[in-house]
Amino acid sequence: MFQILIGIFGSIIGSFLGLCIARLPKGESIVSPPSHCDACGRRLGAVELIPVAGYLIYRGRCRSCGAPVPWWYTGLELLTAGIYLSLWYRFGPTLVALKYAVLASLLLVIAGIDLRTYMIPDSLVLVGLGCGLLFLPLGEVYWPEALVGAALGGGILFLIAAASRGGMGGGDVKLGLVLGLFLGWQQVLVALFLAILAGALMGVILIALGRKRRRDALPFAPFLTAGTLGALWWGRDIINWYIATFFGL
Ligand SMILES: [Zn+2]
């Protein structure tokens, strides 16, 4: 029963995150005007506003002008619901789960904006740093480990950005600070490792398919998001395996 409520809650938040992705890069308010069709400007009705179901009922089209509704809104609603449920299973009904739900939501907006505009807004990085500091007293990550994590996350991405000469942007470096603050130094290493692995793999695939050239930039925030979620799920296991394998402990 709780799972259903969390799924619904996640899809409603996901709907709001989609609005942020669509509006923030254009400098528009995320509060007003209310959701409307981008093509004809008509304000959406109650049924259309229901996450996922609204899209299915009207077959992905505006009720009055027939313009297609971008599919990624619905995809994001489902993704957010899935992530919230996975955090619930992983951390239970705790403040820690809330902390990572906040981080994941912020990362989804940043990743979405990065995919569409190749930019990470500084305002969102500041929100991330603020939230990271707010959750520090929770003590789930001991605060010195969080500060070292921030330095390490930002530092490693800064070195990669410097070495890649434009392949990775300053926004990614600042995002590294946020991730370290939330995750602590051990987990942020896992997150960066997974992100770089996934990014390199995707780069090779896109080059092989002829979709990208070697020097083309790849928005990296989506990979940092995936890496962070991977670290939240498997970070402990990866760290334990690493210590056991290389230090025999
Ligand atoms: Zn319309």
Walk me through what this model shows.
This protein is mainly alpha-helical and 249 residues long. The protein has 2 domains: 1-93, no CATH class; 117-249, no CATH class. It contains 9 helices and no strands. Helix 7 (143-164) crosses helix 8 (170-208). The radius of gyration is 19 Å and the shape is globular. The site of zinc ion has 8 residues, from loops.
**Strand composition percent:** under 5%
Distance linking N and C termini: 42 Å
DSSP summary: helix tally: 9
Overall number of strands: 0
Helix content: over 70%
What ligands does this structure carry?
Answer: zinc ion
The tally of structural domains comes to 2
Q: Which segments are poorly predicted (pLDDT under 50) over 5 or more consecutive residues?
A: none
CA-based gyration radius? 19 Å
Look at the structure and give the mean pLDDT.
92
Main traits of this protein?
single chain, mainly alpha, 2 domains, 9 helices, binds zinc ion
Give a brief description.
The protein is built from 9 helices and no strands.
Topology:
Elements: H1 2-23, H2 46-49, H3 53-57, H4 71-91, H5 95-117, H6 122-135, H7 143-164, H8 170-208, H9 221-247
The structure holds zinc ion (ZN).
